[in-house]
Design brief:
- The chain is of the alpha+beta class and about 400 residues long.
- The chain has 3 domains: about 10-250, no CATH class; about 265-335, no CATH class; about 345-410, no CATH class.
- The protein is built from 18 helices and 15 strands.
- It starts with 9 loop residues before the first helix and ends with a strand.
Length: about 400
């Protein structure tokens, strides 16, 4: 694991030996490659770009709207559960932020996270894990502290120091964590001191309250989401082991290096665009927003669709900017990027009746046929008007219209 282990206090050593564990090496492939940081992987960058593309809205708790997630993941042939997990970590770590319109954008920790400097990354990820534990347990009045003040990171350092190189049964992990807190405080403080912890960080009172059944599940969920722990199976039994990334962030091992990402950008005459995951987000985000996503890999594959460009007022201009350094573009691509959108102009809405009045007949037709807008509309609107369904939220319809380039006012 890369740490200089000291002998455990005898009471703690006896406790560890009583637990059901196996060596982590039993769960690893013998020819496994050296670990790398998942935070610098192409799939983390893909999820960040998809969130910030505007194609996925945030719910009231800042987690991604699952309908949007399923839609974009189906298009990209990407696992939606994997997407949701990464998205929750990026939001908790403030790598991706959420504005008042429930749209994702650049978070305050964007640069620090992607630069992957150990000190900054450690601070960001430790705070994110504590936030996820807090969110997953909910509010209970009898908890003596918030998660951020309960020294739970220090508990994890102590816990993984005890079980250095060992994996524990998943169905027993929570109870083992809870029982560790029942050992003599003097022995735990002694172990904490050898692990570099301060005496005040060994907070048995706070740990006992946070490591109830609900807290155990919340902590394990946060470890999985942050990729601080991995799950392995042997003889139909599930085992949990700390990941190299988790040990690195906890100061119990070296921090894995980031993988080398491709910085290539290519465009074909068949309107395909290939963009390396290592390109800057100013280039990637317009591609995820304006193109059909064909493949998520080291080299992202996109397809320019003239029909989609007609549905997005600024799409052509955005793609031209993103491809500005690509010279020369295939002639078919140049023609496609000149596609003009039929959307834009002014629309008025009367909230009391949910009536919408587009400025032109062309805009009315475009809204009625637009895949992101037509689902909000009811049949039977008066001539020249659109009618929002009584089961739809007019505010959501208006925000989507604004995103697509309309100037919205009241009738």
């Amino acid at each position: 694991m890369g740490i200089n282990m000291k002998p455990l206090p005898s009471v703690i050593e006896r406790f560890v030996k009583k637990q059901n564990t196996i060596p982590i090496t039993d769960l690893l492939k013998p020819d496994a490659e050296p670990p790398f940081s998942p935070y610098g992987s192409y799939w983390f960058r893909a999820v960040a770009a998809m969130l910030r593309s505007g194609r996925v809205a945030a719910k009231s708790n800042d987690s991604p709207n699952l309908t949007d997630v399923n839609r974009i993941c189906k298009e990209a042939n990407f696992n939606q559960h994997f997407f949701d997990r990464i998205a929750k970590l990026l939001v908790a770590a403030k790598v991706v932020g959420v504005d008042r319109r429930n749209q994702y954008g650049e978070g305050v920790n964007h640069a620090s996270f992607w630069n992957h400097r150990r000190k900054e990354l450690t601070e960001i990820l430790r705070a994110a894990v504590l936030q996820m534990i807090e969110d997953n347990t909910g509010y209970l009045a009898w908890r003596p502290t918030m998660a951020i003040h309960a020294s739970l990171i220090e508990f994890l350092i102590l816990f993984f120091t005890c079980f250095h190189g060992r994996a524990l049964r998943e169905d027993q992990l929570g109870q083992v964590m809870h029982d560790l807190c029942l050992l003599p405080e003097s022995d735990l403080k002694k172990l904490g001191a050898s692990a570099g912890l301060k005496t005040k960080d060994v907070s048995l009172h706070g740990w006992k309250h946070w490591l109830d059944e609900k807290g155990q599940k919340a902590l394990l969920s946060a470890l999985y989401t942050a990729e601080w722990a991995y799950y392995g199976k042997q003889q139909k039994i599930g085992w949990v082991m700390p990941s190299p990334m988790g040990l690195g962030i906890l100061g119990l091992g070296p921090l894995p290096d980031t993988p080398t990402l491709v910085n290539e950008l290519k465009a074909d005459s068949n309107l395909a665009i290939f963009a390396g995951a290592g390109l800057d987000f100013d280039t990637l985000i317009p591609l995820f927003r304006c193109c059909k996503i064909k493949r998520i890999d080291q080299l992202f594959e996109f397809q320019v669709n003239p029909k989609r460009l007609k549905e997005m007022p600024s799409a052509g201009a955005e793609l031209r900017t993103a491809l500005a350094n690509f010279d020369p573009l295939p002639s078919s691509m140049v023609v496609a990027l000149q596609t003009e959108s039929s959307l834009g102009g002014k629309i008025g809405i009367r909230y009391c009746s949910a009536l919408v009045k587009p400025e032109t007949a062309d805009a009315l037709t475009a809204i009625r046929e637009h895949p992101q807008l037509k689902g909000y509309l009811e049949h039977g609107a008066p001539p020249g008007y659109l009618l929002v369904k009584p089961t739809s939220n007019p505010d959501n319809f208006i925000e989507r219209c604004r995103t697509l380039g309309f100037d919205v006012g009241l009738l």
